Amino acid sequence: xxxxxxxxxxxxxxxxQTAAEGKKxxxxxxxxxxxxxxNTLARRVEKATRLRFPASxxxxxxxxxxxxxxxxxxxxxxxxxNSGVSPFPRRVRNMANLILKQAAPVxxxxxxxxxx
Length: 116
Fold this sequence. Notes:
Elements: H1 5-20, H2 27-34, H3 38-52, H4 55-62, H5 67-82, H6 89-103
Helix pairs in contact: 1-2, 1-3, 5-6
C-alpha cells in the first residue's frame, strides 16, 4: 500500500480535531477513511499528543485511580506483604478493579484496569 504523506497528515489533523471537539475519535475508522496504514497513523497520533501535553499532564489523564484510591491500593499491597502473602500482579489488578467498582456510581461499571 502506497501511503501519501498528504493523506497521512490530513488523517492526523482529522483525528486531532475530532478529539479536540470531545468526540470519540477512532484511529481505525479515520485510517480507513483516508486509506492510510492504521499503525502508522497511531504512531503519528501518539507522537503528536506527546508533543502537545507535557508528561506530567499526560499522567493525570491516563490514571484510572484517584490519589486516595491509589493510597488505599498501596496500603493493601503492604498489608498483604506484611502478612506473608505475595501480591501477584493479577491480585493487585483485581483489588484495583474492586476499588474502582466500589467508587463507581450505581448502575455504571468502570472500565477494568489492564495489566501493562
